[in-house]
Amino acid sequence: MKERFAEKKQDILLLVIDLAVVVLSWGGFYRESFGTDTLFRRMMPMSDIGGALDQQRYASYFLAKLLYDRGILITDHYRLFFVFFLVTIAVNMWLLQKLFWRTAGNNRRGDDLMIFGYVSCTALIFSNVLFAENFMFPEYHVNYAFAYLFGTLAVCAFAG
Asked: 86-100, 108-122, 135-149: which has the minimum mean pLDDT?
């Protein structure tokens, strides 16, 4: 019982650290964005939603239409969806790190340095400069969040 509690405590600590890394890396994007794309999507949301369908981005269309039908525009609630995106990215980091941790731990050569390397590299994936493109378009935060989440779940399912 104590062993299971210690494992859960370690999981929670790792998740908090991942959230801190993500917030420190991308917290500066917590703002009200008024780019021309965002303003257009605020004024004519169905034009953008329909455009996703025309360009055969069906998952993007489904999510945007589902939220729009419930009276929720991502551009009107930018900060809420930004926080949702940050939390989702932290959960993705956590899931991948747990996977690598388990993989390295099952490996006979899995020493602490190897585990630290896996965990650090996973954090770098989500905190490097190239990842910043995901934060430039607030109207797509939900799409990116689910895309990364589904990708992470696929990797975890594949790795077993």
From this structure: 108-122
- CA 145 vs. chain centroid, Å, equals 4
Task: Concatenate the DSSP letters of all residues of the chain into one string.
Answer: -HHHHHHHHHHHHHHHHHHHHHHHHHGGG-S----HHHHHHHH-HHHHHHHHHHTT-HHHHHHHHHHHHTT--TTTTHHHHHHHHHHHHHHHHHHHHHHHHHHHHHSTT--HHHHHHHHHHHHHHTTSGGGGGGGS-GGGHHHHHHHHHHHHHHHHHHH-
* pLDDT of amino acid 87: 92
From first CA to last CA, the distance across the chain in angstroms is: 25
Query: In the Cβ-directed half-sphere of 108, how many Cα atoms lie within 13 Å?
Result: 0
Check if the beta carbon of residue 82 is closer than 8 Å to that of residue 29.
Answer: yes
- Taking residues 97-122, report their average pLDDT: 69
d(CA 39, CA 59): 23
What is the C-alpha separation between 29 and 56, in angstroms, rounded?
A: 29
